[in-house]
Each structure stands twice: as C-alpha cells, then as structure tokens.
Design a protein that fits this description.
Helix content: over 70%
Order of helices and strands: HHEEHHHHHHHHHHHHH
Structural class: mainly alpha
Strand order of the largest sheet: 1-2
Strand content: under 5%
Number of helices: 15
Oligomer: single chain
Shape: globular
Length: about 375
C-alpha cells in the first residue's frame, strides 16, 4: 500500500532526464529495503530472491551485476577466440595473420549478436508476458532473418552462385590471377541460422503469453505479402526462362535474385525498429523490452563493421561492401537504433521502468504473502 501511494503521488514521468524522479525512485527502494528487507519483504521468510538494482538473478542464484557483466564478456571473448582459431576453413593464404584477426573479430561479434536474442526470450518466459515487446518488430525481424539466412547460405555454399559472383565482381584488368569470392564468412552463416531460430521462438511466444491488448498492425503484414508474391514470381520466372550462371542472354541470374533478397533484409532492418521505438514512446516505458538485447546488438553491429572494413583494407578492395551491402547496412542501422533505445531506457523513461519493476515485484510476492498469512492463521486455529 505504501508503494502504491508513493507511485500515485510520484512526479510526472513524461519529462526526460529529471533529477528529482531519479532520487524519488531510489528513496522508494531504499525505504522499502530499510524497513522490511529487500524490496519490501522480510529476508527471513523464505520468499523467492529478488534482484536489487545492482544484482542479477538466475533462479535462486543472485550475482552482482558487475560480476555478471564480467562473466558475460569473458564468455563472449573466450568463445570468439576459440572459434576464430578453430572453425574458419576458408583461409586466405596471401594474408594469413589479417585473416585470422578478422576471423576472431567475426566470431566475437557472432557471439555478441547471438547471445543478444536470449534475454528477450528469457524475460518473456519469466514474466509469461510479451507486453512491451512490439509484435510488428518481431514479425519483421523473422522475415528479415529468413531472407538473410537464404542469402548467406547460398553465397557461402552454392558453387554456381560463388562462380557468378566471381565473374561479376572480378577486376581482371587489375590482377587477372586474383579470384574474387563473396565476403560471406562461416560466422555469418551460423549467425543467420541461429538468429532465425531464436527469432522464431520469440515470435511464437506472442501466441502463448499475456499480450495486454497489443496486436499486429496491417501495414507490415500487407507489405510482407507483396514482397513474397514478387520474389516468388521472380523465382518461378528464372527457374523457367533463365538464371544460369554467366548467361548473357538471361535478364537475371540467381545472384541477382539473392542480392534482391539482401536488399529486402536491409530495408526491413531500417524500418523494423520503428514500431518498437513508437511503442516505447506511447507507453512512456521500455518495460518488457530487454536492454541487454540492445547492448549486445550494439556490440555485434560495431564489430561486424570493423570486420568488414578490416577485410577490405587488407585486400585494398572495397567491393565486399557493394557485394554484401546488407551486412554493412545491418550493422550501421542497428547501431543507430540501439543508441535510440539506450536513450529511451536510461534517460527518457528510466523512472517509469523503475516504478514498474517495483510494482511487478510487489505483485509477484503477494501470493506468497497470502500463503504465509494462511499458514499462520491455520496454526493459530490449531492452538
């Protein structure tokens, strides 16, 4: 009751970055903790352990946030180094050292980007709710990663596509002995497949958990339907009339179709974050949208661009960017929107998030408090 009263008399949360609301939220938390234990509940009553602002909870294990961050960074760097040395089989004999460094950077960003999908999946499962997560964002994300997976797998594994790419992008006048191959690496393929699977799982959660009145909007669904029709028609036409490698009589090859698919992914990457930005704005909260997803996504995006620039500089050939525009665009676009999300979370709506967190914890503990009261009443009745 005390918390609810303080919540009602709280200063306006619409004004960004105010000092007073920040001090207010801390006073609420400190007051509850000082009087009744962590988050307003006695520490000796056997309640489920709840994280303080500087803690992270994994089941019944409570870890200081700084230690959890250190553990996460260690895991990302360790697996990135190990995979960078062990996995990449398409070595560059002309630049072995640079290739190895690029491979390590690539696998580190693969780890950061891949792990970024788990916090949202986990928080939905814990809350049994998808309120605060944009359904349109998840839908567009699923379509985009489906396109990205097809593009990466074809450019990495399909011999005809790689041959067509080599013919189209080779500059034989500069060095006839150099064979130009797609810039897609093994970590790109693994990341795309892994991202598609995790995005699908997160998308499925929408249909099983509390939605709070949120729904899909018609515009993304209609736009996706049109894209599917266009690319299906294009693919059927190529399968019947052309699409052979280096066939000058054919208006398109399958490489053109794949590059078109990558352009769709890039377009989706530009617009997919907008529904989530707007949802946060309309709710004046980022509750339900996991910030760790954003931080890890920013790390992966920046490292993916670093890897691409390193590869181009090593070979003094910048066609990797034009031949794989989706990778460069994906990293750049995600970084821009991640900065927006961080500003929303840490500055614009920080107080709303904090008070929501306190109220959620109150609601989570209420059934346990009722159960303890019932047990006490039963004991008194016996005596």
């Amino acid at each position: 009751l005390k918390l609810q009263f303080l919540y009602l008399i709280a200063p306006s949360l619409d004004s960004p970055c105010k000092t007073m609301p920040g001090q207010f939220a801390r006073r609420v938390s400190e007051s509850l903790a000082s009087e009744t234990g962590p988050r307003g509940f006695p520490a000796d009553q056997g309640h489920a352990r709840v994280a303080a602002p500087n803690q992270v909870v994994f089941g019944n294990i409570v870890i200081k946030k700084v230690y959890a961050i250190a553990i996460g960074i260690t895991i990302i760097l360790s697996f990135g180094l190990a995979l960078g040395f062990l996995v990449d089989g398409k070595a560059d004999p002309d630049h072995p050292t640079e290739h190895r460094v690029s491979s390590i950077v690539g696998w580190i960003y693969f780890m950061a980007w891949s792990i970024s999908f788990y916090p949202q999946l986990y928080i939905n499962w814990v809350r049994k709710s998808v309120v605060g997560m944009s359904f349109d964002f998840q839908f567009l994300n699923l379509v985009g990663f489906a396109c990205y997976t097809v593009f990466n797998m074809a450019e990495y594994y399909n011999a005809d596509i790689r041959t067509d790419y080599s013919i189209r992008f080779n500059d034989t006048s500069a060095d006839p002995a150099v064979t130009k191959l797609p810039g897609v690496k093994a970590n790109d393929v693994f990341f795309a497949v892994h991202a598609l699977v995790l995005t699908l799982l997160t998308f499925v959660q929408i249909f099983f958990y509390e939605r709070g009145g949120q729904k899909f909007h018609w515009a993304p669904l209609v736009a996706t339907g049109l894209v599917v029709v266009v690319f299906a028609t294009w693919g059927i036409y190529m399968a019947v009339h052309g699409g052979r490698v280096a066939d000058e009589s054919a208006p398109w090859t399958w490489l053109d179709w794949l590059l078109g698919l990558s352009t769709v992914k890039l377009a989706i990457s530009i617009v997919k974050y907008m529904p989530q930005v707007y949802l946060n704005y309309s709710r004046k909260r980022t509750t339900g949208w996991n910030i760790w997803n954003v931080l890890l996504d920013f790390t992966g995006g920046s490292l993916s661009i670093v890897q691409m620039v390193m590869d181009c500089a090593t070979k003094n050939d910048w066609t990797d960017i034009s031949g794989d525009p989706v990778k460069f665009g994906l990293g750049s676009c995600s970084m821009v929107f991640d900065v927006i999300f961080m500003f929303q979370h840490y500055c614009l709506y920080a107080e709303g998030n904090r008070l929501d967190e306190l109220l959620d914890e109150e609601r989570a503990e209420a059934p346990k408090a009722d159960e303890r009261t019932k047990l006490v009443n039963d004991d008194e009745a016996v005596y």
